[in-house]
Structure to design on (255 residues):
């Protein structure tokens, strides 16, 4: 039974990689159907705050339920415990804090919400089940350069992501409408500083976990957020004649 589930977790990880590449292709063709890009003709749309909170919640709830309902054999080891905590801290912020800081977000199409909810359930199970039941690390893993570098990248990426979201929320003063060019922080160098932070965060997590499950999540995140960043970059250039020409899309000094 254990070998069968371990094989399943590896298969799900490879599938997540494949889904990331598929999403990249599809989103390049049809765009990211949410926020400013959502069609006003969408029949079913959900309030932004509620949609964000509920769609992200499975990544927090599924690991907690999985650990509560079955003995988490590997969580008596510090590396496993810390890695799962890293995952949960991110989604505690995304599900319980971030949605309630949104200022007048646009309603989310129902199908976008459903897809996000399904992914968070899928990935929440994949990451938590692997770390709580199967991941084996050496006694000195917490001092391994891969873990230390990954942890620093994870923390740095999360801080960049949170700060960039703060910048975006405060572009407009109370009572103002319309869009503005983001200024400050990494927005001085790239269009999608918030996405860059999240990619760095999950690449750090993948490096620290040194697992196909962790890298699958990082690959999926990069593929999906890159298409969104490219779409944002094009939109800003079309919307604002004075948009800084030197700004890259998502990776400072590269693209």
């Amino acid at each position: 039974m254990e070998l069968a589930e371990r094989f399943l977790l590896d298969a799900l990880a490879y599938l997540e990689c494949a889904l990331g590449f598929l999403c990249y292709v599809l989103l390049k063709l049809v765009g990211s159907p949410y926020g400013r890009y959502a069609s006003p003709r969408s029949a079913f749309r959900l309030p932004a705050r509620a949609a964000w909170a509920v769609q992200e919640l499975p990544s927090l709830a599924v690991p907690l339920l999985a650990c509560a309902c079955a003995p988490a054999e590997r969580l008596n080891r510090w590396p496993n415990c810390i890695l799962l905590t890293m995952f949960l801290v991110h989604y505690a912020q995304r599900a319980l804090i971030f949605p309630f800081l949104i200022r007048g977000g646009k309603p989310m199409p129902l199908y976008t919400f459903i897809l996000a909810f399904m992914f968070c359930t899928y990935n929440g199970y994949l990451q938590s089940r692997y770390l709580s039941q199967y991941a084996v690390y050496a006694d000195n893993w917490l001092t391994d350069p891969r873990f230390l570098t990954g942890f620093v990248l994870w923390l740095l990426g999360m801080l960049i992501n949170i700060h960039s979201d703060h910048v975006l929320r405060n572009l407009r003063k109370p009572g103002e409408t319309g869009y503005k060019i983001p200024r400050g922080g990494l927005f001085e160098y790239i269009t999608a500083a918030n996405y860059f932070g999240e990619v760095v965060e999950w690449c750090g997590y993948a490096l620290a976990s040194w697992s196909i499950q962790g890298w699958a999540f990082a690959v999926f995140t990069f593929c999906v957020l890159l298409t969104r960043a490219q779409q944002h970059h094009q939109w800003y250039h079309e919307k604002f004649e004075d948009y800084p020409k030197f700004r890259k899309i998502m990776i400072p000094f590269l693209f």
Q: What stands out?
A: The chain has one domain: 1-239.
